[in-house]
Specification:
mainly beta; 15-stranded mixed sheet; five-stranded antiparallel sheet; 20 strands
């Protein structure tokens, strides 16, 4: 396989708080203590979208056959869908109007989504959260508006997508969901699942405090909603901290033919980059929060 690296420019400044979207993990399932409004706004009327059963055994056999071939680590199975605002329900609650839909995929360790044509109004906030209170992702705002938007993983096999706007807002949000991803490998730090055992070959940076500063530049990449790679920020000779990001050729080369197509490059420019994903203590099992940036521009190979 070619030993070529790809260089991207992240489209948002790394220190821009508005451009990042946080993911909070709650091992004790008490997410609604920190986010009480999410639960309060649930009326029980949200439509439920139930995914079909996933043949996990067959997927794991495929993964085993691909082991050692240099392909990115796959954690999820994707369902192609075409959900729009018509698939949820709008409700007015005091000063806000709330749109919501519930998505379930039995047995999933996590659920994540690919949005298309996502246009959130200037005052809108979008959250995705576990019905059990395991995780909260958001808020996603109009800053993230994009033709393709990959969400981070939300722990659990049942999640709620909740969008709020002020009742008096002059603009209405719109979005489409093109893919729902069933996470069949447990990718969370509190996992005891043997199927994630391959990840134990990595060093836990929390156990190496001398590398704490450098670790801020390392990110996990959500490639196509189904697979992961990794990479790192890279400074340039001007040392002006432009947000260049370096990763490997095989992360872009989806079909492993040692050539990059226009479609593969376009897909890569819509990746999500997850930073500060680490345990709170060395040897611990708990991660409190981390954040993702979306969108990049291909620069060099």
């Amino acid at each position: 396989m070619k030993k070529i690296l790809f260089l991207f420019a992240l489209l948002w400044g790394i220190f821009s708080a508005e451009a990042q979207v946080a993911t909070h993990i709650f091992e004790s399932k008490d997410a609604f203590k920190l986010f009480p409004d999410l639960k309060r706004r649930e009326s029980g009327k949200a439509p439920v979208k139930q995914m079909q059963a996933v043949n996990v055994e067959a997927l794991l056999k495929e993964d085993e056959a691909n082991a050692g071939l240099g392909v990115p680590f796959r954690f999820g199975y994707g369902f192609d869908v075409n959900y729009t605002m018509d698939d949820g329900i709008w409700e007015e609650q005091l000063s806000v109007r709330v749109w919501s839909v519930k998505v379930t995929s039995k047995g999933a360790y996590s659920i994540n989504f690919i949005f298309s044509d996502m246009v959130l109004s200037p005052e809108a906030e979008l959250y995705i959260y576990s019905s059990e209170g395991l995780a909260v992702y958001g808020p996603v705002t109009s800053v993230q508006n994009a033709a393709v938007f990959l969400t981070d993983l939300v722990a659990g096999d049942e999640v709620v997508i909740q969008l709020t706007e002020p009742v008096g807002a002059t603009e209405r949000s719109s979005l489409k969901i093109s893919k729902v991803v069933h996470g069949y490998v447990n990718m969370f730090p509190f996992s005891t699942d043997a199927r994630a055992a391959a990840l134990t070959c990595h060093n836990d940076v929390v156990c190496y405090p001398e590398w704490l500063r450098e670790s801020e530049g390392v990110a996990l990449i959500l490639l196509n909603g189904l697979s992961f790679c990794t990479g790192s920020l890279l400074n340039n000779t001007s040392e002006d901290f432009k947000s260049y990001f370096l990763t490997a050729f095989h992360c872009v080369d989806a079909n492993q033919n040692e050539s990059i197509s226009a479609n593969e490059q376009s897909t890569a420019e819509n990746w999500a980059f997850r930073f500060r994903y680490k345990r709170e203590t060395c040897g611990g099992s708990y991660v409190s929060s981390y954040f993702t940036y979306n969108q990049a521009q291909f620069r060099a190979a």
